[in-house]
Amino acid sequence: MRKGGTTHPFLTLQFLTDGTYDPDRAVFFTPGGHEKHFVANDHLESPAYRALSPDDLFDIAVRRGLHFDQTRETGVVFYMLASLAENGRIGLVAIGDSAAEADALCRRTQSVLDDESRLALAPRVLPAVD
């Protein structure tokens, strides 16, 4: 593998699972022999995401079941959080048991962040005081 855009996501997968890449079969395996796949996006961006803080992002991930689950060794890991407030941009690595699962998790994460940022930006009416 080259050192470039795939290095960070691959090292994230390796660190979280303690697995190894089998170049002969072009598959990543955990020590327990389970295949793992990842989809990475280092440019997930929306102006609406500026309404979210890094703490919000982690709360949303846990509340919506997106966070990396060490037991299942699947889930999402966020990075590039410093650009969230200013640019509405983050990076993420979605880890799944199949390429399709990792892709679906990445897409679901974007959908959830779109929904949550819309909610964060929605005007709220304060209750009337009697």
* Helical residues, percent: 25-40%
Question: What fraction of the residues are assigned to beta strands by DSSP?
Answer: 15-25%
Please give the order of strands in the largest beta sheet: 1-2-3-5-4
Annotation field: number of helices: 4
Total domain count? 1
Structural class: alpha+beta
Uncertain runs: none
Largest sheet: 5 strands, antiparallel
Radius of gyration: 17 Å
Whole-Å distance between the termini? 66 Å
Order of helices and strands: HEEEHEHEH
User: Tally of extended strands?
Assistant: 5
The overall pLDDT, averaged over residues, is: 92
Q: What is the 3D form?
A: elongated
Report on the structure:
The protein is α+β, with helices and mostly antiparallel strands. The chain has one domain. It is built from four helices and five strands; from the N terminus they run H-E-E-E-H-E-H-E-H. It has a five-stranded antiparallel β-sheet with strand order 1-2-3-5-4. Strand 2 and strand 3 form a beta hairpin. The termini are far apart. The mean pLDDT is 92.
Structure at a glance:
This protein has 130 residues and is an alpha+beta fold. 37% of the residues lie in helices and 23% in strands. The protein starts with 6 loop residues before the first helix and ends in a 9-residue tail after the last helix.
